[in-house]
Design a protein that fits this description.
The chain is α+β, with helices and mostly antiparallel strands. It is built from 10 helices and 16 strands. Bound molecules: flavin-adenine dinucleotide.
Length: 318
């Protein structure tokens, strides 16, 4: 019996090594440009699975990494254990306390879908395909950050498996130093299995992207920088210069082009929002292509982010 067979006997989810059926699917994240080849991949199905996996890794002296969606992958993982949290996907919203209980593998989409019927929202990032826990552990600076701050400010509690395999709670009252570190510290602080996140009442926002062709890039960028100096403190805005691929999911006028995407969000009245937007430099007024008021859960429809796994790396953020 190999040591991995012993691990298999202790874990309900799959324990896979290179060559096993399902290994490639288990380790592949959203960025297909990065291929992971850990020594072992563990598809955890419960907090008990996570604790067993971490205890095994500690006893064997092998490093542990965590993957939910793979959106945060920067380099290939070539050794040790990869814990895949994608099966831990449940989300529960309590409209009375305005708390969402979010398992480690859930993306923002089910969180928003569960919160919206109650007129509530999390303070998520720009893409609903990103993992809610991974995002929050990095602090989280998204489309509502000027009006609402960092997402990690809304975290109320984490359930964490520590490096020794203990299951602990981190909150303002239990393990407060770990709680402090988890709200932005991200890596090396244990495996978070669940988070309690405060939601805010916000039924609609005025938000979207305006796309400009490459020839206007310099003028728009200068105009945007000037505009941001006086933009209302509830307005959140950013720009990205993107080489959009020539594929069907990209709208025809943008396909295969280098564009500047100006992102804008305002959590209030649409007329007020438009007036703040139109105070932009004249160069911005001339060629708007996309902006609309939207119910929060539908915001994914107006994204240029791939909705499934794809090679990444062509986008340059400013
Ligand atoms: C399309 C896109 C849009 C984005 N938009 C924004 C944005 O608006 N604002 C912003 O601030 N960031 C944004 N990001 C960055 C994003 O927040 C990070 O890449 C984040 O780490 C992704 O988390 P994930 O769980 O989806 O990714 P994963 O690659 O699965 O995880 C990334 C890392 O998070 C840690 N991690 C994940 N889960 C756990 C866990 N359960 N326990 C412990 N550690 C864990 C691990 O270190 C892991 O390597 C964006 C990224 C993409 C690709």
């Amino acid at each position: 019996m190999t040591s991995y067979d012993q691990l298999r006997a202790r874990i309900a989810g799959p324990v896979l090594t290179s060559g096993d059926p399902g290994f490639a699917e288990e380790v592949t994240g959203s960025n297909l440009a990065i291929s992971h080849t850990p020594d072992v991949a563990v598809g955890v199905t419960s907090v008990a699975d996570v604790a067993e996996a971490v205890r095994f890794a500690a006893a064997e002296g092998i490093p542990v990494r965590v993957q939910a969606t793979g959106h945060g992958a920067h380099e290939p993982i070539t050794d040790g254990m990869l814990i895949s949290t994608r099966r831990l996907s449940d989300v529960m919203v309590d409209p009375e306390t305005r708390i969402a209980s979010i398992a480690a593998g859930a993306s923002w989409r089910p969180v928003q879908q569960a919160a919206a019927p109650h007129g509530l929202t999390a303070i998520p990032g720009s893409s609903v395909t990103v993992g809610a826990v991974g995002y929050t552990l990095g602090g989280g600076l998204g489309p509502l950050s000027r009006s609402h701050g960092f997402t990690s400010d809304y975290a109320r509690e984490f359930e964490v498996v520590t490096a020794s395999g203990d299951i602990v709670t981190a909150s303002n009252t239990e393990n407060p130093e770990l709680f402090w570190a988890l709200r932005g510290g991200k890596v090396g602080l244990g495996v978070v299995t669940r988070m309690q996140l405060e939601l805010v009442p916000l039924p609609t926002i005025y938000a979207g992207s305006i796309f400009f062709p490459e020839e206007h890039l310099s003028a728009v960028l200068r105009g945007w920088i000037d505009w941001t100096r006086s933009a209302h403190d509830q307005v959140t805005t950013s720009v990205a210069i993107m080489n959009l691929p020539d594929v069907e999911m990209v709208p025809p006028p943008l396909r295969g082009r280098r564009v500047l995407s100006l992102r804008f969000a305002y959590p209030g009245d649409a007329r007020e929002a438009r007036s703040w937007l139109l105070r932009c430099a004249p160069s911005l007024r001339r060629s708007s292509t996309r902006s609309r008021r939207c119910r929060l859960p539908t915001s994914a429809r107006s994204t240029t982010t791939p909705t499934g796994p794809a090679p990444a790396g062509a986008e340059a953020c400013c």
